[in-house]
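Progress report, Aim 2. The chain analyzed during this reporting quarter is listed below.
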Amino acid sequence: MQDNDFLAPVAPTPIVHCRHCRFWDAHMISVPTRTPEGLCRRKAPQPAIVPDDIDTGTSWPRTFEDDWCGEGVPMDPA
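Predicted structure tokens for the chain:
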């Protein structure tokens, strides 16, 4: 027998896709795509990187419904 025979199995961390995440704001952005897009509201928006003559302020990351990041939080079942 080996020492690691006695270790409890570690359950894999479940993946929470954007469409099931409580921080995802689902909506189509300008042009429809193959899969619905939305905005990730998990963290504060970041400054948009655009040419100096365009001021868009900040922007939330755009994601597709089947994307995932590893920080997703499932929606409440209620």
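The two ends are 47 Å apart (CA to CA). Residues 14-44+57-69 form one domain. These observations will guide the mutagenesis work planned for the next reporting period.
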